[in-house]
Amino acid sequence: MSTALTQAGAPLAPGLIIRTLGLTDYAATWQAMQAYTSTRDDDSPDELWLTEHAPIYTLGLNRRDVRPPSRSDIPLLEVDRGGKITYHGPGQVVIYVLIDLKRRGLTVRQLVSAMENAIISLLASHGIAAEARADAPGVYVQGAKIASLGLRLKQQRSYHGLALNIDMDLAPFLAIDPCGYQGLQVTQTRDLGLTLTPQAAAQQLLHNLTEALGYTECLTEKTL
User: How many independent structural domains does the chain possess?
Assistant: First the structure.
């Protein structure tokens, strides 16, 4: 297994594993994240899980005053991440971040900023100006949300992560108040003129994220 290095060059074992999962069932992947987090120890590697999901609405722990979806053909699942309601579907890049924050010397705010900055850097490399907002985690382009973030921590170890809209059907967002904000517009790279596939976007985003988190080496695997 590769060993990640700190920016100062000192060994930080164990390293990072990136898992490429393809299209997955949300509930099964969520349960796998919970299981990994509950059983990992000080020697367990940090992991990033790259996936896409079949259409699903997910409702986070902040459920107060959330309007339920106005369509019933897409399932709704209550989950244990932070935040309110969002939509996942094919053509959206999802990266789950299973990191031991204490071991890496990260605060939650630093982790969130690393995720946001990785997305902002990806978009900037294609000529799109994007920004984060202090009052609503995520990434926005001209006021429209292009990426959502949500995390859960147990014993300073994170799971859940980010979702970046690339080339998907955005219509299901119209049936909810995205992230609890009535009238919030949602966008994606395709509608911003980028001919970027989810696969290409994912690889660029993984590179930016591992760099932002200070990993210099990682091991890529295809399965859980």
Answer: 1
Query: How far apart (Å, rounded) are the C-alpha atoms in residues 55 and 73?
Result: 9
Relative orientation angle of helices 198-212 and 108-124, to the nearest 10 degrees: 130
Q: Is 179 a catalytic residue?
A: yes
Q: Decide: residue 24, CB within 10 A, 0-12 exposed, 13-18 middle, 19+ buried.
A: middle
Which range marks the domain in which residue 165 is found? 4-221
Structural tokens at position 171: 């219509």
Which residue out of 111, 179, 205, 206 is catalytically annotated?
179
Q: What is the CATH number of the domain that holds 95?
A: 3.30.930.10
pLDDT tens-place string over residues 82-137: 999 999 999 999 999 999 999 999 999 999 999 999 999 999 999 999 999 988 88
DSSP letter for each residue of 32-70: HHHHHHHH--TTPPEEEEEEEE-SEEEE-S--TTPPPPS
